[in-house]
Design a protein that fits this description.
With 492 residues, the chain is an alpha+beta fold. It contains 18 helices and 19 strands. α6 packs antiparallel against α18 and α9 packs across α12.
Length: 492
């Protein structure tokens, strides 16, 4: 073999390098595409694994997934029970194997538990997947499969207290309205009442009625507790007071001479029954619910800051709850005319809130400014009582500082000690802090009645939010309904 001379060798090597470079350039797109395909494959594989482990159950459990009903062929729908063990919904089977969904408490829990036909609602809808899932032990499943029997579905254990729910329902009497009871330290919803109600055992008749000409305007299906929007009335003075405190570190020096009625920016504002409160500070203004004082306060506030404080308390925002609800509204902004401030400051005008939202604001106040997000289901258990899944509050939100909370609590205690709620709570064995409210809903002086507050002092027990419609006609006050609920809680 002949060895090339140096020049020829150099030429040969250079040519080889050029060929390699050309091959690299030629193969680069192929290599890039190969790597890209491998990465896409790995990403798809990783997504599949993640979906199987993390998201598949969530997708199946989505209440809008109609494929859940397939499980009903093999599983008997599980029970829904209260926190104190009362059966709120169950499935009975007759001798011929026909299943009937029954609701032992009839109208009392209708809106929160819901119904299982005509699209479902409430917990029946939200936890449909869990109710149609069976986690009984394998031996029992095999026996049922051999006998061609359905396996029993899991039990949904709610946070609801049957005693408080019944007490709230009874206290409302024939009045329209709603009651929400929360545990401020955990976020558990202890009662969730809406009236008028309906009997879910007769859902077919109810459905026919609301779709008839006679019942076309009926609101019996509306869950007033979370979907009913009302003027907050004097309960909104909590928001106005908080904003005044934030803008005025010397708020304790506030003083106003109430003469029962006055004109503010061309708007006449009167206290209840034109009552003359005399000289009041901020605490007394809250305790006596002095409208003229709060109209005066409202006109001193910075509008943008006022709106921010309202939104800090979740006005104009989606509430952090996994329950069908309406969002509350606060319309004031920097461009608002001064003439609408006096009515807004006392909770009238265009401001609107739900009983659930009002309960959440009070819960944050009771809990040092921190809101435990409310929830309705405590756990899922199999038919043998073994816990399959344990729930808790989905998180916390800070709505105000602990210092601001403490200031408001002192004022709210005054409401029940010597203010507008004194006659209901003065001689009770338990302490209550709260705010009353009367909110006019027409130009004829007709009004709704509010109470929102908590009991237990420095270690709060429960928060109660009440709205009673048409107080002018039925004379059932929110304070009276709240008192009945507090009494039921402490009468153990």
């Amino acid at each position: 073999m002949m060895i090339p001379e140096n020049t020829e060798l150099e030429h040969f090597l250079k040519r080889e390098e050029e060929i390699k470079e050309k091959l690299k350039i030629k193969n680069k797109p192929i290599i890039t595409m190969t790597y890209l395909m491998v990465l896409v494959f790995l990403a798809l594989f990783a997504h599949l694994i993640y979906f199987m482990v993390h998201d598949s159950k969530k997708l199946i459990a989505d209440s809008h997934n109609s494929r859940q009903d397939y499980y009903a062929k093999y599983i008997r729908r599980g029970d829904i029970v209260s926190a104190d063990g009362k059966v709120l919904a169950t499935t009975t089977v007759d001798e011929d194997g026909n299943e009937t969904r029954e609701y032992p408490y009839k109208e009392v829990f209708a809106h929160v538990i819901g119904y299982n036909e005509y699209g479902r609602s409430g917990i029946e809808l939200q936890y449909n997947f869990q109710l149609l899932t069976s986690n009984v032990n394998v031996v029992k499943q095999l026996k049922n499969d051999v006998k061609n029997n359905k396996n029993p579905g899991d039990t949904v254990c709610t946070t609801l207290d049957s005693r408080l729910q019944q007490a709230a329902y009874d206290a409302l009497g024939d009045a329209r309205g709603a009651v929400v009871v929360l545990d401020p330290s955990t976020g558990k919803i202890l009662a969730f009442v809406s009236k008028p109600s309906y009997d879910p055992n007769n859902i077919e008749e109810v459905w026919d009625y609301i779709h008839s000409e006679e019942g076309s305007e009926s609101t019996i299906m509306l869950n007033r507790a979370s979907q009913g929007l009302y003027a907050p009335g004097s309960t909104f003075k909590i928001v106005t007071a908080l904003e005044y405190i934030r803008e005025n570190p010397n708020y304790k020096n506030y003083s106003y001479e109430c003469e029962g009625t006055d004109i503010f920016k061309g708007v006449e504002i009167s206290c209840a029954n034109d009552h003359v409160h005399g000289t009041v500070d901020l605490k007394d203004s809250v305790a006596y619910s002095c409208n003229t004082s709060f109209a005066n306060i409202g006109l001193t506030l910075d509008k943008e800051s006022y709106r921010k404080t309202a939104e800090d308390l979740l006005y104009n925002k989606d509430l952090p709850v996994d329950i069908d609800h309406s969002n509350s509204s606060f319309k004031i902004d920097k461009n608002s005319d001064d003439s609408i401030i006096p009515q807004t400051a006392i909770g009238q005008g265009d401001t609107a809130i739900t009983p659930l939202h009002n309960a959440m604001i009070m819960s944050a106040i009771a809990n040092g400014g921190v809101l435990k997000k409310p929830y309705l289901v405590d756990s899922i258990k199999n038919s043998d009582g073994v816990t399959v899944e344990k729930m808790k509050s989905p998180g916390t939100m800070t709505l105000m500082s602990a210092k601001e909370s403490a200031i408001l609590i002192e004022m709210l205690e005054a409401v029940c000690d010597y203010g507008t709620a004194e006659s209901y709570f003065e001689y009770k064995d338990y302490d209550v802090a709260g705010k009353t409210g009367t909110a006019e809903y027409d130009n004829n002086g007709n009004c709704n009645s509010w109470f929102v507050g908590f009991s237990g002092g420095e270690d709060p027990d429960i928060v109660v939010s009440v709205i009673v419609e048409d107080y002018t006609e039925n004379q059932t006050s929110g304070s009276y309904v709240a008192m009945c609920v507090f009494d039921a809680y402490y009468d153990k």
